[in-house]
Design goal:
Helix content is 31%, strand content 23%. The chain is built from twelve helices and 20 strands. Strands 9-7-5-2-10-1-11-15-19-20 form a ten-stranded mixed beta sheet. Strands 14, 16, 17 and 18 form a four-stranded mixed beta sheet that branches.
Amino acid sequence: MIDVLLGLQWGDEGKGKIADFLTPQYDIVARFQGGPNAGHSLHFNNKKFVLNTIPSGIFRENCINLIGNGVVADPERLKKEIENIADEGIDIKNNLLISKKTHLILPTHRILDAANEKSKGDKKIGSTLRGIGPTYMDKTGRNGLRMGDILSHDFNTKYNELVQKHLKLIQNLSYSDFNLEESEKPFFEALDFLRTFKLIDSEYYINNELKKGKKILAEGAQGSLLDIDFGSYPFVTSSNTTAGGVCTGLGVSPRSIDKVIGIFKAYCTRVGSGPFPTELNDELGEQIRKNGMEFGATTGRPRRTGWLDLPALNYSVMINGVTELIMMKSDVLSGLENVKICNSYKTSEGISDLLPFDIADKHIEPIYQSYKGWQQDLSKINSYEDLPQEFKNYCNLISEQTNCKLSIISVGPDREETIYRE
Ligand code: IMP
């Protein structure tokens, strides 16, 4: 069976830590969408690792890691990521599989990303500029190049044709701030490097492994509110970050999915532009950013911070069919006199607990309920019984309001700082 692990907010919920924590239960960890716009942080043995494209099971012995067809991969970044991991003595040549259908991010996709963002002016998405959007555009536009193509003798011809198309687009956007030759050298070196890896027909592989009874964890990237269909469009990423993306991004049947594990933070963050109803543009927001070290794992950008948003969380629970919840970074809210949760939104049309279609254009006033905060440092606690009552009340309330089991609580970045609740 496949269990799915995905973020329920705007990304950066802590999927890397939990994927790494859960991997001993799985034979295979598979990424099904997104690309190096993701940054999954793993902390263990007093070290921090950030994974962008490689699944988070890579540090566990005997765990196979699959980059699925739904992913877009940047060869140069992937090479660097592989080399960093190999430095840790990991047998990555055997433990990493890459789908032949994974789309390639070309240097010109990154340039196009920058050119598009620049042309949008103050309406820019706040993209990570990793070339994700333009690569998915070429995929749906049926122009893209895939990992399997690098094995073909006419790869360079296909590459040059696509680059010529891109250069015209870049010229139309009057963008000239790039040096293609400089980017192409490491790109082609990376292709030579990747040719020595296991590039496979991953849909056959994964279905065969399922037949053998292997346990698979599908690891999501970004968050449900950044989903191309259901996120706060147009301020979203370019893939289906929600549970539906697992079937198309790995080539598996919906019937093979068992648990859908949804991760959220005890508060909210967002990086990049776009609506954020519960955003705190004040000292408290700054305090949460500082305490939670809310700076992008991929780009280093400061993240916007705010209170927990229940209408948004419930929406994500619904879209994904979440079967259990994991709450992250609960320790960050320690020491506050009161904590708030948004229960509904007030707009010109009245009060509602549903996400409006035009969330990006509407003025939304969040309606909050305030609760007594907890004062203890949660990161030193290792059993649910020992947690402060005020914090347990917070957990109970979220579980009740989402109608979902809250099974795990994370109280710090380390593997060890994780508490089972149910
Ligand atoms: P893109 O996917 O790089 O084009 O970025 C589109 C939007 O999604 C921007 O607002 C990014 O900040 C956001 N985004 C993309 N990937 C992540 C992520 O892994 N975590 C949080 N936000 C992300």
